Amino acid sequence: MTANDTTLGARLDRGLDELGLEVAPSRRDRLLALVGLLHKWNRAYNLTAVRDPQEMVARHLLDSAAVHPFVRGPRLLDVGAGPGLPGLVLAILDPTLEVTLLDSNGKKVRFQRQAVMELGLPNVTPVQARVEAFDAPAGGFDQVISRAFASLGDFVTLSASLPAEDGQWLAMKGPAVEDELGGLPEKVAVVASHELRVPFEAGHRRLVILERGGSVPA
Ligand SMILES: C[S@@+](CC[C@H](N)C(=O)[O-])C[C@H]1O[C@@H](n2cnc3c(N)ncnc32)[C@H](O)[C@@H]1O
């Protein structure tokens, strides 16, 4: 292990601690390995604008891990997952989740497959498809999540058929999500909206949870 790995590991440990997440050493090491893979493949595949591994720990790992308490699974679909965020992180944290990573971009999905293989994650299935052309397995997904994918209205409209009857959408948004609430389709409503603090990040992450037929305003 290099001095740089030690620094990254210390930053990750502190962040997970701040989030109140206890993570087994083998899983914590896989989270760090994911940063290594993102850093290595970023040069060729342009996976993320974040180039610095220290920054990746906060902006990618901890930001994704912050929503873990709201993920109930077991079947979770990550729409527009890109390099697998937040889905890969959530799958590493909880091996009982069955995570499908969906992206239309071939390079992103090739990276997802590489990460699944190198990190040994049998609970993750990468799929290359456009969300609007993707069919859910029988019964649908328990939760459909996205980060930096689309407006709230577009996310829910494009994935309208994918959650189970009693399933949920989890939208990872910035603090100014109120402006997007008007774009929601009828019969889908916000049932909860959580302000999450991400370690080492200045602003707040907002997690908006939606269900069919919900009626509680944000
Ligand atoms: C800004 S990136 C976000 C990636 C990742 N969720 C993250 O937070 O780093 C948006 C991703 O959505 C994918 N995407 C855009 N339109 C899509 C569609 N209609 N169906 C599936 N994926 C799509 C793009 O290929 C891209 O990888």
Structure in words:
The protein is an alpha/beta fold. It has a single domain (3-212), classed as Vaccinia Virus protein VP39 (Rossmann fold). Helices cover 36% and strands 24% of the residues. It has 6 helices and 7 strands, in the order αααβαβαββαβββ. The protein has a 7-stranded mixed β-sheet with strand order 3-2-1-4-5-7-6, with helices on both faces. Helix 3 crosses helix 4. The mean pLDDT is 94. The chain binds S-adenosylmethionine. S-adenosylmethionine (SAM) is lined by residues 48, 80-82, 85, 102-105, 108, 130-132, 147-149.
Give the SSE map.
Layout: H1 3-18, H2 25-45, H3 53-65, E1 75-79, H4 87-93, E2 98-103, H5 106-119, E3 124-128, E4 141-147, H6 152-158, E5 163-173, E6 188-197, E7 204-212
Parallel strand pairs: 1-2, 1-4, 2-3, 4-5
Antiparallel strand pairs: 5-7, 6-7
Helix pairs in contact: 1-3, 2-3, 2-5, 3-4
The structure holds S-adenosylmethionine.
S-adenosylmethionine is lined by residues 48, 80-82, 85, 102-105, 108, 130-132, 147-149.
